[in-house]
Write a structure and sequence with these properties.
The complex is a heterodimer of chains A (503) and B (96).
Chain A (H helix, E strand, L loop, with lengths): L3 H10 L4 E5 L2 E4 H18 L3 E5 L4 H13 L3 E3 L6 H11 L2 E5 L1 H7 L6 E3 L1 H12 L12 E6 L9 E5 H11 L10 E4 L6 H13 L2 E4 L5 H10 L4 E4 L1 H16 L12 E4 L6 H10 L4 E8 L4 E6 L1 H8 L4 H5 L6 E2 L4 E5 L12 E6 L6 E2 L11 E9 L5 E6 L4 E3 L2 E3 L1 H8 L5 E11 L3 E10 L8 H11 L8 E4 L13 H9 L1
Parallel strand pairs in A: 1-10, 3-4, 3-5, 5-6, 9-10, 9-11, 11-12, 12-13, 24-25
Antiparallel strand pairs in A: 1-2, 7-8, 8-18, 13-14, 14-15, 16-17, 17-19, 19-20, 21-22, 23-24
Chain B lengths: L5 E3 L6 E6 L5 E3 L2 E2 L24 E3 L6 E6 L5 E3 L2 E2 L1 E2 L10
Antiparallel strand pairs in B: 1-2, 2-6, 3-4, 3-7, 5-6, 5-9, 7-8
Classes of the chains: A alpha/beta (503), B mainly beta (96).
Chain lengths: 503, 96
């Protein structure tokens, strides 16, 4: 099975339908398939081990993804935001590669004569030129389709690999072929090196939902594109949603006309923790839009659990605290995926008890270039911590590595943060482990005061935690800051916060 | 036969991709499917002429066989003479 099948089927069913809109240019399914076949010819000629992309999203990302698949060479989209030293190390690991994008940077960081370097424009032009004579046969798809480097916060980035079989299983299990009406369009603003960006391409092409590509996210550009192309669907990370809502608020304040988002039926989000207040605001601001929270990892081929539109509305409108709390959950597992919570000894835990999240299913790769992380029964330890409630809803409480171990007691940062965030003068809060002579680790709390409020009293915050949780959860130290460090996908960088306490 | 094998009908235009399979003959329009298209394509037998639909998955009762229709045709699918059914999938909201 080869993921290129999805593009072949779409191009077969409706060759002239618009598949992709990027920077004002429209590409049909036939255009993209021809480009992918031409790209595959170029890749085969180049005799490389990997096809890399060091560029923002564009039609070249689609042609490189499917071209690499047709040629049977792993596709490796790289994070162009990485520092030179980190990017150089990754480039050295994928040589010899055909690298599309910022050639000058590649040559500077990795002067390796074995690489074939081509700009975005040249790649697309060559792919189109070769398309006419390119073979239509696809590689059997028995091997690796995509290799993504993890962000590497604890050690050198790991090369996660997704096989064609994992991705085909994910798409067939979650998307109905050609299910999208012709007027539907999905706004894709996540970068091409993120699993959500890749999954968005595969899902939209198989559903035959026109892709509206926004190469660099900015809230005004997002709103304008959504209105101009009448986007019906969008995927955002929580920080994007916050900035979109903020921009809409400013338009109201300035008396500017609001963009027409009447076509926007569905917004899916994931990739980081959604603040509860923000999702409540979004549900009020978009009363007819269906919201879906998707939880997944690179190693699981994207989504493994989701909280659907009806569950969002039910939680938002409920007075029952249990139902209302579900807005903070990531929903229930996909029908094709199993999820278990286990303790440190690998024992399966009952509902309500926190532990490490394990995932199993055909879409789950759990595999790195160096080794597979799957256990003997095919379960993948995600290193995410969480619990499942009595009704099967999965709640995340951070990375297992972020758990604070105080005198042998496991403390999840999320429980402390949730309590502190209820203080009216607190805009953001993060709890991390800090070294303690007495306990091994203790709780360090960093707080961003809300604009227009003076910083809350340190003892008051400690008292709140003591009253709502228990004394072991009380922060030993409290710091105040203007902002917290996040990466470009909105993930909190706890490692950097720890260094603030070390000063 | 391994997953990913593409099979062609000897009785119509249907083509399928094998997603999973066990022991047994995969047929379309009542005739065995093969990796090569026969030079003379016949017509579907009356019992297996309901047609195939692009993008639908077809399964047997035991879930041993699963075929994805990648090109539709007039014949319908069976394994050892037993008709396959369209796999019912609960629609999920788009999540990416």
């Amino acid at each position: 099975m080869n993921i290129a099948l999805f593009l072949e089927m779409a191009a077969d069913a409706a060759p002239d339908r618009i598949a992709l809109v990027c920077d004002g240019t429209r590409w049909t399914y036939a255009d993209l398939l021809a480009g992918a076949r031409g790209a595959a010819a170029l890749i085969r000629q180049s005799e490389v081990a990997h096809v890399a992309l060091l560029d923002e999203s564009s039609e070249a990302a689609v042609m490189a993804l499917f071209g690499a698949a047709l040629a049977g060479v792993p596709y490796v989209p790289l994070n162009y935001r990485l520092a030179d030293a980190d990017l150089g190390a990754l480039l050295a690991r994928i040589s010899p590669a055909l690298i599309v994008g910022d050639g000058a940077r590649v040559r500077r960081l990795c002067p390796d004569a074995a690489n074939v370097i081509v700009s975005r424009a040249d790649f697309v032009e060559q792919a189109q030129a070769l398309a006419g004579d390119a073979p239509v046969d696809a590689d059997a798809g028995d091997d690796v389709a995509i290799q993504l480097f993890t962000s590497g916060t604890t050690a050198a980035p790991k090369a996660a690999i997704l096989r064609h079989a994992n991705l085909v299983s994910y798409i067939l299990g979650t998307v109905e072929f050609a299910a999208a009406p012709e007027e539907d369009a999905a706004l894709v603003s996540v970068p091409p090196y993120h699993i959500a960006g890749i999954a968005a391409l595969l899902s939209s092409i198989y559903a035959m939902r026109r892709i509206l590509m926004l190469p660099a996210f900015a809230p005004d550009a997002w709103l304008n594109l959504a209105a101009a192309e009448r986007a019906s669907n969008a995927f955002v990370v929580p920080t994007m949603l916050a900035r979109i809502i903020e921009a809409m608020g400013q338009m109201v304040a300035n008396g500017a006309s609001q963009p027409d988002l009447s076509a926007l039926r569905a917004i899916a989000y994931g990739g980081g923790k959604m603040p509860t207040e923000l999702i409540h605001d979004a549900l009020d601001l978009f009363p007819t839009t269906g919201f879906t929270n998707a939880y997944g990892l690179t190693e699981t081929s994207s989504t493994v659990a989701l909280l659907g539109p009806d569950e969002h509305r039910a939680a938002h409108g409920s007075d029952d605290p249990v139902v209302r709390a579900r807005l903070g959950s990531v929903g229930r597992p996909l029908p094709t995926v199993e999820i278990e919570i286990r303790d440190e000894d690998g024992r399966v835990l009952p509902p309500g008890v926190p532990g490490e999240i394990y995932v199993r299913g055909e879409q789950v790769s759990g595999e790195y270039r160096e080794r597979s992380a799957l256990d003997a029964d095919g379960w993948f330890p995600t290193r995410d911590a969480g619990y499942i409630d009595a009704d099967g809803y999965l709640f995340l409480s951070g990375r297992a590595d972020d758990v604070i171990v105080r005198g042998g007691e496991n403390i999840s940062p999320g429980e402390i943060e949730d309590v502190v965030m209820t203080h009216p003068a607190v805009a953001e809060a993060a709890a991390v482990a800090i070294p303690s002579h007495e306990w091994g680790e203790a709780v360090g709390l960093i707080v961003v005061p809300r604009a227009g409020h003076s910083a809350p009293d340190e003892d008051e915050l400690k008292q709140m935690v003591r009253a709502r949780l228990r004394s072991s959860r009380v922060p030993e130290r409290v710091l105040f800051a203007d902002t917290l460090p996040y990466n470009e996908m909105g993930k909190l960088l706890r490692r950097e916060i720890k260094t603030l306490f070390a000063r | 036969m391994k997953p990913g094998t593409k099979l062609k009908s000897a009785a119509c235009d249907t083509e399928v991709m094998v997603i999973r399979c066990g022991e047994g003959a995969i047929e379309c329009g009542g005739a065995a499917m093969g990796e090569a298209k026969p030079e003379a394509v016949g017509t579907p037998s009356a019992d297996f002429a309901a047609g195939t639909l692009m993008g639908k998955r077809y399964v047997d009762a035991a879930g041993t066989f699963e075929l994805l229709c990648v090109k539709p045709g007039k014949g319908s699918l069976s394994v050892d003479g037993v008709a396959l059914q369209v796999k019912d999938a609960k629609p999920l909201p788009a999540s990416d």
